[in-house]
């Protein structure tokens, strides 16, 4: 989108806050007609700015209260290992995010599990699929800020 403006930013802010809002509500907030609001949202979807509309779920209420960050170092950096790693982490339930990193750390994995036994099951699934040089884990004691909204 070449003409991304303040109205688009306002629309995105509102949608990031609550994507279930009606077009009427959104159009009132941003000062556009319902149809103009809908067209801008469609343009942002078509441009790939809006990539999905999702429902956020309280992890504790569905039995996944423990968040873990796994720091992974690999002994291999070849394309075959990277491909197998990507396939493995995409198919293991509980793994939410995976990032390839710079520096000493090769990968950072964010996961949700029920408890330490759940973490051990996730860990065992991962190491059964491919070799890693080192995995260390840090467990979240308190969520101070956890947001999906990007600053606009």
Automatic annotation (TrEMBL):
Zinc-finger keyword on record: no
SUPFAM superfamilies: Dimeric alpha+beta barrel, Winged helix' DNA-binding domain
Example of a GO biological process term: regulation of DNA-templated transcription
Boundaries of every HTH asnC-type domain copy: 4-65
UniProt GO MF annotations: sequence-specific DNA binding
Keyword Coiled coil in record: no
GO cellular component: a single term: cytosol
SMART domains: HTH_ASNC
Keywords: DNA-binding, Transcription, Transcription regulation
Signal peptide span: none
Entry-linked PANTHER family: DNA-BINDING TRANSCRIPTIONAL ACTIVATOR DECR (PTHR30154:SF17), LEUCINE-RESPONSIVE REGULATORY PROTEIN (PTHR30154)
Name by which UniProt lists this protein: Leucine-responsive regulatory protein
Taxonomic classification: Bacteria, Pseudomonadati, Pseudomonadota, Alphaproteobacteria, Rhodobacterales
